[in-house]
Amino acid sequence: EPEVTQTPSHQVTQMGQEVILRCVPISNHLYFYWYRQILGQKVEFLVSFYNNEISEKSEIFDDQFSVERPDGSNFTLKIRSTKLEDSAMYFCASRASGVSQETQYFGPGTRLLVL
Amino acid sequence: AQSVTQLGSHVSVSEGALVLLRCNYSSSVPPYLFWYVQYPNQGLQLLLKYTSAATLVKGINGFEAEFKKSETSFHLTKPSAHMSDAAEYFCAVKDLRGNEKLTFGTGTRLTIIP
Q1: Tens-digit pLDDT profile for chain B (114 aa)?
Q2: How far is A27 from chain B (nearest CA, A)?
Q3: Among B49, B51, B21, which residue's Cα sits nearest to residue B34?
Q4: What distance in Å separates the CA atoms of residue A7 and residue A2, rounded to the nearest whole number?
């Protein structure tokens, strides 16, 4: 069964450093998402991406964040200058287009720790 | 704005007993509703979803949920708990206005007592 994959599974970085989290969505999906889950808190929406542009973003997704689909398979989240409060589990998700294709399929996550 | 409330951050049931996890939503337009499960150190797996068809929805692993518009609820149930059901369960809502985001509840951690 096709699945969303994410790399790395864990990332430790120093405050102020740039990180890039990578995702490979399900191959025929056209909508892509990033969510995060701070330890002990709920899953929060960050951004959605369709047709090579951001379709929706939350207030969390400020200028320090960016997303890109650099090729036909990868979808990346870049945090330009990490803060301590960026420590969280980051989930990528994707969904197909079309009628009755509302389900977002999630990857296993990247646990980011900012020191 | 849409929101989800999950009553009970922790629920414990005995193996073989009924599982009931509560979810109430708020949405100004008819929503789509989802239950996801998160096993330790894993991602979110879809259990079931409501998308304005049948109000009683059956999902994987013997779970089901009933959409009740009058109560704005979408509670998750399973007649007989199994040890493997121990996990965190998240209810999520997506409205039909074209917004892409899922709004999640705070989650309920289900513990199964042998």
Answers
A1: 788 999 989 999 999 999 999 999 988 777 899 999 999 878 899 999 998 778 899 999 999 999 998 999 999 999 999 999 999 999 999 876 667 789 999 999 999 999
A2: 18
A3: B49
A4: 16
